[in-house]
């Protein structure tokens, strides 16, 4: 195999690695820009540790987050991973009424169990 072919292959691989890392860096910068833009009081955020809270105040590099119970904690801006709603229901979320079909199914199961048990 000619030596120039190996050099061309090596240069091609290095260029591909450079383009991929450049694209990843641009995506990370875009995500960071969106996160900093969304750090306004009232927005839900998720930290890198998995803590969900609402932004109370932003003071320089320090962000004050409130839990659903109202406790406030201080976090570094670098610890904020994303602006997103929590996967659980917040205190302000409305409770949806239960489905009538589920209640009927429970009643049917109870009557089946009663029928299966022997009565003295």
What do these coordinates show?
The protein is α+β, with helices and mostly antiparallel strands. Strands 4-3-2-1-5 form a five-stranded antiparallel beta sheet. The radius of gyration is 27 Å and the shape is rod-shaped. About 4% of the residues have low confidence. Keywords: Cell membrane, Membrane, Protein transport, Translocation, Transmembrane, Transmembrane helix, Transport. Belongs to the YajC family.
Q: CATH first level of the largest domain: which class?
A: Mainly Beta
Spatial order of the strands forming the largest sheet: 4-3-2-1-5
- Main sheet makeup: 5 strands, antiparallel
The count of strands amounts to 5
- What would the CATH topology of the largest domain be? SH3 type barrels
Shape: rod-shaped
Oligomer classification = single chain
What are the segments in which pLDDT stays under 50 over at least 5 consecutive residues?
A: 93-97
Helix content: 40-55%
Structural class: alpha+beta
Topology as a string of helices (H) and strands (E): HEEEEEH
Number of helices: 2
**How large is the radius of gyration?**
27 Å
Subcellular location: Cell membrane
Pfam family, one: YajC
Protein name: Preprotein translocase, YajC subunit
InterPro entries: Preprotein_translocase_YajC
């Amino acid at each position: 195999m000619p030596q120039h072919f190996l050099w061309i292959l090596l240069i091609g691989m290095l260029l591909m690695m450079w383009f991929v890392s450049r694209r990843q860096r641009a995506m990370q910068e875009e995500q960071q820009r969106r996160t900093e833009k969304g750090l306004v009081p009232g927005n839900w955020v998720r930290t890198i540790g998995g803590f969900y809270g609402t932004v109370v105040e932003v003071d320089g590099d320090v962000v004050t987050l409130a839990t659903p119970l109202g406790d406030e904690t201080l976090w570094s801006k670098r610890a904020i991973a994303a602006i997103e709603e929590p996967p659980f229901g917040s205190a302000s979320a409305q409770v949806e009424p239960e489905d009538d079909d589920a209640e009927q199914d429970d009643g049917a199961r109870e009557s089946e169990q009663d029928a299966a048990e022997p009565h003295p």
